[in-house]
Amino acid sequence: MQEELLDKTIRINRLFDFYHSLLTEKQQIFLRYYFQDDYTLGEIAGEFEISRQAVYEHIKRAQHMLEEYEDKLRLLIKQEERERLADHLRIAADRLSEPHKHEIKQLLVQLDQLDE
Asked: pTM (2 decimals)?
């Protein structure tokens, strides 16, 4: 159960990295507070002087929106695949002669920098 919660939190944070600008300001704030800053629903509710249920609904709606964006745009899935392929390239590069290894490692560094 705890591992599932952690996996969900990681997924939401990764989706948030890609799609946060597509959410409303309030959705962004609530997701940041809840998933990144570890606020409780009650703490967020107190901060904004609304009910815990209202906070819950905002967060639930924002999560749903993030999943919808991912279903359509697939940015997270593509990123995870790029990371997997880059890892395989690193392993393959280690088996090459030094000049080729160095060239591939430089290209991988450039690839990593694209995501920053």
From this structure: 0.82
